[in-house]
Amino acid sequence: MIQRSSHYILFSWVILLYLIEIFFPVPYINDVLAGSTIVLFLLSFPYASTLFKILAAVFTTAGFFFIFFYSLPTGELYLYVNENLSLLALLFMLPWMNSVVRAGRYDRKINTLLSANVNDLGKLYQRASVTSYILVAFINLSALSLSQGVLRDNLQRFDRKLQQSFIAQTTLRAFAVALCWSPMEILVAISVDATGVSYFSMLPWLMLVSFLTLTIDGFIGRYRYRKTAYSQQNNGGSVKQILKPMVTLFTALSLFLASIVIIGNLFGFDFILTVTLVIFPFAFTWAVLGRRRRSFLWIGVPLWKERNSHMQNFILLFVSLAFFSTTLNETPLLEMVQDPFLAMGETPWIVLFMIQLTYLAMSMIGIHPIATIAVLIEAVSPLFSIANPLSFSIVFVSGALATATVGTYGVTVTMTAMNTQQNPYRITWMNMPFALLYGTIGTITAILLL
Q1: Would the CA dihedral through 88, 90, 96, 102 be positive or negative?
Q2: How many other C-beta atoms lie within 10 A of the C-beta of residue 448?
Q3: pTM, whole model, 2 decimals?
């Protein structure tokens, strides 16, 4: 069996075949790609977490059940596993953007915000939320551990429960809203692909939902913690000191988005493929211009290998989902899944709330939002012709990301529980009002656009 540390080699082979199939299609390349994907799936299974093993087993078993129960043609069923490779290719490239931010030490510079002088925990709450928000937008999950570690050190003298609540609220909530508009967030990519709505049509509305939710939560947090003094005075950083790296990061993000538009329009690529192709050359150019090429490669190559050798959970999820979704589409059962949503077709605003609540309910029993969105897309896609698909795309994203703060068995809540040494159910309970607020703001925004 291939060693886990070398898993990236087989993963790289599959992604290479996928790109060859797109740009240089040759006879039987699809068959070789499907065979390689199945091998990757099988070798990933032993290393995946129990939850994702269960999900993959359920989706795969259901797919085979559909095939035999409904007597579907079996000649090319093995090709079904190729359907979600575009999403795996995007995940395959994401570590390079993380690497360029680390190479430029932007994460450390911006994190000095948490050491700047504040008088009470209310102000620190807002400061921590904004800092985590900025970092998450660029280095995703890595920002969670970074911010939680700094806060844990700064709050050592406070009551343990207060520390736990403060850290779990500020960092998880900032994480959930920061990814709402990120072109590198996989749920955003799925929504763009499923609804056919341009990412740049979604962007202003997703940013509105994101900023509005962050602002409201910031005011609530400041009010809640305002009476708790925070006398630690540390001149390790100030707003002026981190202004330059902040401007650099947001300039880079603007140029990244511009690159996606230009290349996508120039070559006619879809959004997911464009982001996948742009990430590495953009990150490398950024490192060269910032005179960080060596640091970028020194940090980036090991990080890329490590991340792609530990992608087993997502490989199991996306490959099994592709098989399940493709077979489901060919059965009459799809109509049964769609019926509850189509019954409310004349009142699409109710459907939007149903989507939000479905996400929350599924997250409570450990179903990943990517698995939930795959089923929801099949269920509500007929409504795209009678209601604004932009509204659905907004709820698909905001409803899914709201679960990042309450999904008891999810990666973010589990990681926070480990970092703060508290029960994950307690994190779910304390963040549920925020998840409902976030989802409701997204849903109301979507309703106004119907």
Answers
A1: negative
A2: 11
A3: 0.89
